[in-house]
Amino acid sequence: MPIHHLARLLLFALLTVLLCGCSISQALRVRDRTTVDVDSMIADISDAPVIFLGERHDEPAHHDLQLRVLKALQAQGRDIAIGMEMFESVSQPALDAWSAGRVPEEAFRKVYQWSWRHIPWGMYSDIFFFARDNHIPIVALNAPRGIVQNVAQRGFGSLKAAELADLPPDVDARVTDQFLNFMRGSFPSHGRSGDAFRHIAEAQMLRNMVMARRIYDYLAAHPKKVMVVIAGGGHARGGGGVPAELRGNQNYRIVLPPVPPLDEESVTPEDADYLLVERF
């Protein structure tokens, strides 16, 4: 066989292996360190009123897994809402109109692109279409970006009354030494000390608190709903993330992908209930 034909066959075989390995079929059950299939994981988490599905934003396999969980919950007859880090409350009317089928795709794309400008539409489009086609509410969770940026630059104490009025009333972006240590381990590129580092930690905590309050408020108003929360792994993580800021002893389950510094060796039950097993 000519060498160039052999090279093509080898390349095709490699691509086939890589593509087949992209889907996620297993997860580590953290409490007993047992590897289970995704269907077993979904069955285990599906009775919780809040399900956090962490992600690396640019990883298609994580979004495929999220959609799989949503479809499984719907098949079980659960009344679903999708909480998304990707949107701020200013976009809620557009989200409501989308889920009701009243917004053309092109118009909603613009809302998405304004909201989450660095990640292509295609990463989340299947989730959006599933929500629209089944009239599933999408709930905007994130804090206003302008306020987050101001806190990151100058600290929470610098916010003016008008900015505070745009936040839930009990959000103060307090950061403990424990949270600062969490930030040092999870976000080493931000530096490790000084006022600049504290301000960045406060901005992260602000987002955690606002998302937690919006989850709580939505479920308080819709007590029969199950909210599936789609957010970055750092926000979905139990210790140092949104779950720790939920009020009212809300029951929740957490599924995370490996996100530095978490891996199969270091993850604990405080971090997540399940850690996805990725082949590549």
Automatic annotation (TrEMBL):
Cross-referenced InterPro entries: Cofac_haem-bd_dom (IPR007314)
Pfam families named in the record: Cofac_haem_bdg
Domain Haem-binding uptake Tiki superfamily ChaN residue range list: 41-246
Keywords tagged on the record: Lipoprotein
The protein's name: ChaN family lipoprotein
Source species of the chain: Geomonas diazotrophica
Lineage of producing organism: Bacteria, Pseudomonadati, Thermodesulfobacteriota, Desulfuromonadia, Geobacterales
